[in-house]
Amino acid sequence: MKIYNITDTDRFFRVLSDCRGDVEIIGKDGSAIPFNKDDNARIIEEMSSDITIHEMELHFSDPKDCIKMIVYLGNFKAA
After folding, report:
1. pLDDT over 70 at 76, yes or no
2. What is 33-79 written as a DSSP string?
3. What's the total number of domains in the chain?
């Protein structure tokens, strides 16, 4: 799944952290980087809330997590 223009990164990463299955962030070179809830939570806390994610590709091992992300993206109100 590719996502674009996420401005509420705090909420976005909370949704990712709530996923039950494995989540991989796909790099531009096609490499899969596992989203580790514990390690990434520390990094996310250090990030500024002013960051916009312009494009990101995600792979979900649990289809229910993909649905959860679609629901989040569908309810997202653009600023």
Report:
1. no
2. EE--HHHHHHHHHHS-TT--EEEEEEEESSHHHHHHHHHHHHHPPP-
3. 1
